[in-house]
Amino acid sequence: MDSGVLPLLITGAIVLLLFSVLRGRGGVRHRPEVIQNLLFDVKLNQVLVETFYEREKPRRFERSNWEINKSKMSFLSDELRETLRLTFGMAEEFNREIKIIKKNKALSHKGLDVTKLAEPLAKCREGLEGWLMEALGTTEVPPRYPSLTGLLFGGDR
After folding, report:
1. Number of domains in the chain
2. Range of the domain at 108
3. Fewer CB near the last or first residue (10 Å), C or N of the chain?
4. pLDDT for 103-152, tens place per residue?
């Protein structure tokens, strides 16, 4: 090997390594995906509320995307954050009651008034879809494709 090629290769490797480590992860560009994930939970919970009394066995309300993303909501309005917090809190309360009902087979889920969730879920959906419309002009987040550095260094999509 040429004595001038080795330092060039090392410099190039260091630059690529620094670029992959120092580039921003998450942040602003992930906001639409966070919103879309929360919106998925809200839509699913709306369907669960609508079909709750038709089911033989109650199904718990979805909260996983809320649990994952609740600390990343600072870019939303205070009102929407509070509505989301209260709504998913109500869903957790219903989940606790559903768990008790499932353990005690003598109890029926028909006695739960899950219709209380309908209005807060509608407000959450309206707020989240409104944020997507304002930020993207659509309620669907366009797919993102991997970049070259993402493919090479295992970065985000």
Report:
1. 1
2. 28-143
3. N
4. 887 777 778 889 999 999 999 999 999 998 888 787 776 665 556 656 66
Whole-number Å distance between alpha carbons of 142 and 145:
10
Instruction: Give the pLDDT mean for 7-30.
Output: 65
Half-sphere exposure of residue 96, counting CA atoms within 13 Å on the CB side? 5
Task: For residue 153, tell me if it sits in a domain.
Answer: no
- Name the one residue in this structure whose structure tokens are 């309908």: 118
Q: Is residue 48 classed exposed, middle or buried when 0-12, 13-18 and 19+ CB atoms within 10 A define those classes?
A: buried
CA–CA separation, 121 vs 123, rounded Å? 5
Range with the lowest mean pLDDT among 26-35, 78-87, 88-97? 26-35
The three-state DSSP-derived secondary structure of the chain is: CCCCHHHHHHHHHHHHHHHHHHCCCCHHHHHHHHHHHHHHHHHHHHHHHHHHHHCCCCCCCCCHHHHHHHHHCCCCCHHHHHHHHHHHHHHHHHHHHHHHHHHCCCCCHHHCCHHHHHHHHHHHHHHHHHHHHHHHCCCCCCCCCCCHHHHHHCCCC
Is residue 151 exposed (0-12), middle (13-18) or buried (19+ Cβ within 10 Å)? Answer: exposed
